[in-house]
């Protein structure tokens, strides 16, 4: 078995070296800060806690309780909301808790279609389906790259959903919550916003503020545009008087525990506290640069001849750029060729693709949040666009791989965090 252990060591080293020499542009990834990283290997990793601070089912949580209280208060401050639960261990886990707490089998929920960017947890073959919820999809406007507001309002009034979900994994523009508020209020729907991808942009004031636009609860991942540990969070601003708000929130918390989690990975929670504190300090500047970079990349790709979606509204208002690459061989081919050149993106369904054929879609999805995290700005985005063209249009894979390695040598430090200036990969090196 020692040989297998050595093999794992070798593979982890190779992976780390590969990403050191690559341009990671998966829209759901980011780099955790050195200060937050150290808590992932602390004794907290070895311990257990169930329940809420002061109401645990385990002993040994004296300090854990205080860590959780601080993390919760930082979340409330960062998002300016009255309620936060920092126990979910992923964004999907947070979604499960909301589904479990707000819906029963047979209930109707409305949400975006999968090919319109919805997350798989809201699909019938995902967590929604496991719960037995009847999901009805919103009409999608490809030109706007957003929901068709008029048709969606009519749909909501017709089917009267118990829960109306907004938020997507391909999230170019803000969801039209304010535009649909009258229809949602008319049917009494609970409004849930999945902000996994844009959580850091929301906190940085650069996207939309769903919990102050009409959403009652927001779930999110804490490792995408909010660059923390891989974890989830639930935030809420429910309607009604204090009694109704408390009743709503208690249902959400019961959905978390004992609903869908037991122990909530205490080492990640401590790291999350640092990520929240860093984002309070640096989040506005970081979010602003992310959006600038995404817009620049999209515009440059368009200039170079790519079919970039969302052109009518300026291509993107988030960290994501969506490109139709059918003319270059399709999403899967382009993503695989880019990977060979050390540019890491993913192939992705586009709104007009067949959702039953997700393995060979028309598009690629590109995220700029990690490159922004290591200091890249608009000029670098123009260079990245040129590199993508060289691979997808000119088939110069080997040449681009070397260019990427040289480019990356100048960007090896994490920014927008405490202790800024530390080498991005030093803390990932194995002994």
Structure description:
- There is one protein chain.
- The protein has helices at residues 2-20, 34-37, 62-79, 91-102, 127-130, 149-159, 177-187, 199-203, 242-260, 266-303, 331-340, 369-373, 378-392, 397-408, and strands spanning 23-24, 51-52, 55-56, 83-85, 108-111, 134-137, 140-141, 146-147, 163-166, 190-194, 217-223, 227-236, 307-308, 320-324, 343-344, 346-348, 363-367.
- It is α/β, with parallel strands linked by helices.
- It folds into 2 domains: 37-275, Type I PLP-dependent aspartate aminotransferase-like (Major domain) (Aspartate Aminotransferase, domain 2, 3-Layer(aba) Sandwich); 283-428, Aspartate Aminotransferase, domain 1 (Alpha-Beta Complex).
- The strands form 5 sheets. Strands 4-12-11-10-9-5-6 form a 7-stranded mixed β-sheet.
- Strand 9, helix 7 (177-187) and strand 10 form a beta-alpha-beta unit.
- Helix 3 packs parallel to helix 10 and helix 13 packs antiparallel against helix 14 (397-408).
- The mean pLDDT is 94.
Short description:
This protein is of the alpha/beta class and 431 residues long.
Keywords:
alpha/beta; Aspartate Aminotransferase, domain 2; 42% helix; 431 residues; 7-stranded mixed sheet; Aspartate Aminotransferase, domain 1; 2 domains; 14 helices
Question: Which class of secondary structure composition applies to the elements?
Answer: alpha/beta
Q: How many domains would you count in the coordinates?
A: 2
CATH class of the largest domain: Alpha Beta
The radius of gyration over CA amounts to 22 Å
Largest sheet at a glance? Answer: 7 strands, mixed
The percent range for strand residues is 5-15%
CATH architecture of the largest domain: 3-Layer(aba) Sandwich
**Can you tell me the CATH superfamily of the largest domain?**
Type I PLP-dependent aspartate aminotransferase-like (Major domain)
**What is the CATH third-level topology name of the largest domain?**
Aspartate Aminotransferase, domain 2
Structure summary, number of beta strands: 17
Number of helices: 14
Strand order, largest beta sheet: 4-12-11-10-9-5-6
Distance between the termini: 20 Å
Low-confidence stretches: none
Q: Quaternary arrangement of the chains shown?
A: single chain
What share of residues is helical?
40-55%
Residue-averaged pLDDT, rounded?
94
Sum up the overall morphology in one term. Answer: globular
